[in-house]
Amino acid sequence: MEAYGIFQGGGAKGYAHVGALKAAEERGIQFIRYAGTSAGAIVAALAAAGYTADEIYDPERVAGERGILDINIDDLLDAQQYGRVRSIMEEFGNVRKIANPRDGIIGWWQRTKREQPLAFMRWVKFGIRHRASFLHVNRHFGMVEASPVTDWLDNILKAKLGTAHSPTFRDIGMKLKIVAANLRTGEVHQFGTRGDENLPIAPAVMASACFPFFFQPVSIAANMFVDGGLVSNLPVWLFDDERDDDTRHLPTFGFRLINDTLLADEKASPKSFFGFGRRIMQTLLSGARNLEERRVDYYHAIDLTARIGTLSFATLRDDAPAVVRAGRNCVDDYFDREVGPQDPARIERILDHMLNELVEHYEWRNELVRAHVLLPEPSGRFARTMYSCHMEADGDDHLRVRLDTEGAGSVFRYKEPIYLKLDELEAGPGNPLKYELAARPRSVAYQYAIPIFRKDTEWRKGNPRNRHLPFAALVIDKSNPIDLLLFDEAEQDLLANVAAIVGEEVKGQRLIRRRRMEPKGSGPPGMASPTGAAGILVSNRKTRDARDGDFGTRLGSAFSRIK
Question: What is the pTM of this model?
Fold first, then answer.
């Protein structure tokens, strides 16, 4: 599946993006364009140049051999300058612990006068001791030069792209966009747009990752740049024009860096002056997220939790493996929940082949035939169309359906195939089924929904109530009725087998036992409404033989060749 990838800034938390890339690679997602801010810009640039997630950082390898980001920040930055930063941060933490209890500035002052009359002198000594560093910031607007990081990034991009010159945006096919804050104009600046073909990538990325006061600003073409997180920390909007021009309606994945300690306390008000200041910075970097994500169709916002501070570079080498794994787990969880366990493009091709075979087998020519796969949500109240075929032009290709109505979602409730005559379903005022029916094209008049179980032995249970919950359902939509098929036991078994084979591809594992099941208690021919309601029917025959016949064997073999 092709997609756009957007990577949020977040300092040391950006290692979670490497895990996100790994999970995306395992799902068969190919990003055709990358964008990012700050730490997200670094990961986006590496991926756009062709580095795989394992080449960037593989937490399963031994330390020192984990990839290009397995680095010690002390070795990368100027030792004297970074030493000053570490000294200030360590001493600041000690002073803050003594002189800044959580009862705030006024409470601290009163407590200081009463209990620690000399504690405030620690702040004075702190300022005097580091006056040279503060004067350095006053002159250069930052503690540490950014050029060593720029040179390092330039060299690793050269190594991948094989260029003698500093790699430019043209060298990677103009598929990378970067955001930085332009202090001369006071505006957001985009790198990687038309006119930037010959611009080196490394300085643009460093401009986006130039954390204020930590790094000295980056100068490019008489402009002064600092961290893009100040103006757009998750620039989903960067590819608006490309999305508008692309008729394929490709999805966009926005990887958002979330501090899980903030998530646990995100609704609480800050209780100290320093907590207030920290929350100001967090709001500045993330507060515009809703605006950045507006008007983006087929957008997936994936939160990556990272148990590490934005500037926790001193402990990063020890913490990085856990941060990368956390990012990977977050993406895996999201895909299982929202996108599906497999590559949607491949499952669409599988459904297309299935429909072609069914059309030939049943002679369903010159009529509308569609198919989609429903997966239940963890809440147990809804199911979502995760995969579909011949539905891309319709409004129900990503439909979310309720399980407590008499629509297609009821297949999870009844745990047996259901046949729906949509025009006869009762969906009056107050019935949520009306919204589901309104989303479907008028040409879709009939549906046949087949549950997919983790084990095909579920079909041997004569009472569907005793079956386990299906993990998915195959739904076939038609414009013409298929009543006659449903009275033929062989065809019932064939369709159950087809659904199970599709389920194997969705689940990624074998579900069908390769021996005859000998169905019992099949019941008399015919169909009846399970509730007496119009428009929904189930077969009187409750069991099925879902083993492979000639049709299923041929279908499964064809599926195995689809990439």
Answer: 0.70
